[in-house]
Automatic annotation (TrEMBL):
Signal peptide as annotated in the record: none
Name used for this protein in its record: PLD nuclease N-terminal domain-containing protein
Membrane topology: Multi-pass membrane protein
Residue intervals passing through the bilayer: 12-31, 43-62
Keyword field: Cell membrane, Membrane, Transmembrane, Transmembrane helix
Species of provenance: Lysinibacillus pakistanensis
Keyword flag Transmembrane helix: yes
Lineage top rank: taxon: Bacteria
Domain Cardiolipin synthase N-terminal residue range list: 22-64
GO cellular component, one term: plasma membrane
InterPro entries associated with the record: CLS_N
Length: 67
């Protein structure tokens, strides 16, 4: 198991994980302060948290209700 972890190219994966976490945090904070969304807020929370990198991007493109 430890040998497998050593063979993972962390130089490529680590930035993706960091970008994913930053997008998730920003999307959740934005969802908290916005009043109206396209769909229920709890659904957007689940999408943001569980659909990895595409969830927060989908929220910013589709989820925010344009005024």
């Amino acid at each position: 198991m430890i040998e497998q972890l050593g063979s993972i190219p962390w130089a490529i994966i680590a930035p993706l994980i960091i970008v994913q976490l930053i997008l998730m945090i920003v999307a959740l904070f934005d969802l908290r302060k916005i009043h109206a969304t396209n769909g229920p807020k709890i659904l957007w929370v689940l999408i943001i948290v569980f659909v990895n990198l595409l969830g927060p991007i989908a929220y910013f493109i589709v989820g925010r209700k344009q005024t």
